[in-house]
Amino acid sequence: MTTNVIRSPRTAWRIPAALIALSLVPSAAGVFRLGQLAANAPVTEENARFFAMPLPVVAHIVGAILYSLVGAFQFAPAFRRRRPRWHRLAGRVLVAAGVIVALSGLWMAVFYDVPPVDGLAVEIERLIVGTVMLASLVLALAAIRRRDIATHRAWMIRAYALALGAGTQVFTHLPFAIAGVAPGVTGRAVAMAAGWIINIVVAEWIIRGRPGLRAPRPA
Questions:
Q1: What is the three-class DSSP state of 208?
Q2: Closest Cα to residue 110, out of 53, 160, 171, 68?
Q3: 8 A C-beta contact, residue 11 and residue 79
C-alpha cells in the first residue's frame, strides 16, 4: 500500500517550473560566459583564467544547464509515471551531467587562480560541495543498482539541491545589491554558503516527509 496525494496537472508542474526559474540567472550567466569565450572577448583580470584553460568552465556550464533543466522534470511525479522510459534515460543523462559538473567544479577550485573576492573560504566551500555532490551521485547510482528506490531518490535530490546552489545564491547576494555595495571576502563566503545550506535544508525536508514527493513506503 502507498500513500498518494492527488494533484491537479497545474499544481504538479509548479515545482519543476520553480526549479527552472531558479536556474535561469546562473544559466544566463553561463551562456554569457560561453559567448565571451566563443567571441574571443577582451581578456580581463576577472576572466583570464577561463581563457587560459576554457575546457573545464565550458564543461561545467554546459553540464550545469543540462543538469538543472532536465533534473527539474524529475520533480513531476505524474510525468515520471506516464513516461518511465524517459525517466530512466533522463536519470542516466543526469548522473553523467552531474558528475561532469562536480568534477569540473573541483578542478576549477583546485587549479584556477582564486578571484580576490572569493578567498580561501569560498574555495574550501566549493571543494566540499563538489565532493559531497559527487559522492551523492555515486551513492544514488549504487542504490538504484540494488533497486533501493527510496535511497536513490534521496541522494539524487541532495545532489540536485547542491547543483542548484548557484540559483539560490542570487538571492543570498541580494542584500549587497540592494545596499549598493560589493561583498567583501567574509560577506561573499557567507552568501555562498547560505545558498547551499538553504537548498540542503529544503532537500532534507522533502526527503524526510514532504507529502507527494517522498518515495512510497510499505504501510
A1: coil
A2: 53
A3: no
CA gap 110, 46 in Å, rounded: 17
Q: Which domain holds residue 18?
A: 11-207
Asked whether residue 135 is assigned to any structural domain, the reply reads: yes
Residue 64 lies in a domain: yes
pLDDT in tens, 205-219: 999 875 444 444 433
Q: Is 112 left (phi over 0), alpha (psi -120 to 50) or beta?
A: beta
Assigned domain for 187 exists: yes
Q: How does DSSP classify residue 43?
A: P
Domain for residue 143, yes or no? yes
Q: Which cell numbers hold the place of 91?
A: 536519470
Interior angle at CA 103, CA 97 and CA 105, nearest 5: 100
- pLDDT tens for 132-142 read 999 999 999 99
Count of domains in the chain?
1
- Under the banding of pLDDT at 50, 70 and 90, the label for residue 11 is low
* pTM of the model as a whole: 0.86
